[in-house]
Structure to design on (341 residues):
């Protein structure tokens, strides 16, 4: 734990305070707009899916681009009056690669956010009631694993291309290059400190499990209620759903802490973390307000840990453990509410 606190102190010593404050105010404004106007819910409700996809892409690109423009200096470039982040960056010989990744990152996540039609796997013709329930079940179960495989493939292609064009280079925090696939490495990794973090988060989850908006959202397993009436025992199928749900956090950690921090560090160094945290907050716009607000600070902390440890395994343990604790908390909280009525 002492190491984590040292990482955070070191991070805030090495970025201008105004960078954090400007980004925080920007994110706070976005959160206010979303929970006033329901931005994400409105985008999700749009059809056909290309329209929803386009608006998600526009939202993420705007947030990511503005968050980067709020950063004022890059490692290796002395700050000069009137020279902001993007103007300094324009002097770099690899500015084209950075611009391409700035566009690619929102595009990839917008693709993940829309519903994928997997009827080519499960079939699409008319079926009786029980078969329709199973088809719906497998459509839900397969969504996240299929998306993970596609994102893994696309990110691996980016990583391989980055290595061919000089993944490390001068002016980055990792002059020897970042040899792992966006932090998927156990080199020098110890899991125990991350399980201690989960213990510290347990009381917060317990408190959240008493809140109405939390219980309206969790457990996500309530999406399987339609199957519980048709199969006994239901728990093996619910467990499979939870495993599928857990795979989503592999893609999230790989994308945000791996790609957006360890992948962007060659361009922005330590300044890659705040834009990632702002982007990460926006993907929680459909969650309870408290979870959305905490996602900015949690994303920032996990980004700092990934930046210093050069692995995303710790963040994956914390994120996945927290997700499953919230599932359990939501299940227990809803059961207590039901039994009290």
């Amino acid at each position: 734990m002492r190491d984590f606190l040292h990482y955070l102190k070191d991070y805030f010593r090495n970025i201008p305070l105004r960078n954090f404050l400007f980004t925080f105010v920007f994110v706070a404004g976005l959160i206010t707009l979303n929970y006033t106007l329901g931005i994400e819910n409105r985008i999700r409700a749009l059809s056909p899916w290309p329209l929803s996809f386009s608006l998600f892409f526009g939202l993420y690109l705007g947030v990511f681009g503005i968050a980067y423009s709020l950063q004022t200096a890059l490692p290796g470039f002395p700050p000069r009056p009137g020279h902001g982040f993007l103007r300094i960056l324009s002097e770099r010989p690899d500015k084209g690669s950075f611009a391409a990744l700035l566009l690619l990152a929102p595009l990839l996540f917008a693709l993940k956010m829309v519903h994928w039609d997997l009827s080519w796997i499960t079939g699409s013709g008319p079926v009786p009631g029980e078969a329709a329930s199973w088809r719906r079940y497998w459509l839900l179960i397969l969504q996240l694993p299929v998306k993970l495989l596609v994102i893994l493939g696309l990110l691996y292609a980016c990583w391989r291309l980055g290595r061919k064009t000089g993944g490390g280079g001068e002016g980055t925090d990792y002059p020897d290059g970042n040899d792992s696939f966006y932090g998927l490495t156990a080199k020098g990794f110890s899991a125990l400190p991350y399980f201690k973090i989960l213990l510290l988060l347990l009381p917060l989850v317990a408190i959240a499990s008493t809140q109405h908006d939390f219980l309206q959202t969790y457990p996500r397993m309530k999406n399987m209620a339609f199957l519980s009436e048709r199969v006994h025992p239901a728990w093996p199928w619910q467990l499979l759903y939870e495993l599928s749900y857990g795979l989503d956090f592999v893609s999230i950690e790989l994308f945000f802490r791996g790609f957006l921090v360890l992948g962007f560090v060659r361009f922005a160094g330590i300044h890659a973390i705040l834009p990632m945290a702002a982007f990460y907050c926006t993907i929680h716009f459909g969650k309870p307000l408290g979870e959305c607000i905490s996602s900015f600070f949690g994303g920032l902390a996990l980004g700092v840990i990934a930046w210093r440890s050069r692995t995303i395994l710790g963040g994956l343990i914390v994120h996945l453990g927290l997700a499953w604790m919230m599932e359990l908390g939501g299940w227990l909280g809803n059961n207590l509410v039901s039994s009290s009525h």
The chain has a mean pLDDT of 87. Residues 2-20+117-340 form one domain. The chain is about 70% helix and 0% strand. The chain has one domain: 2-20+117-340.
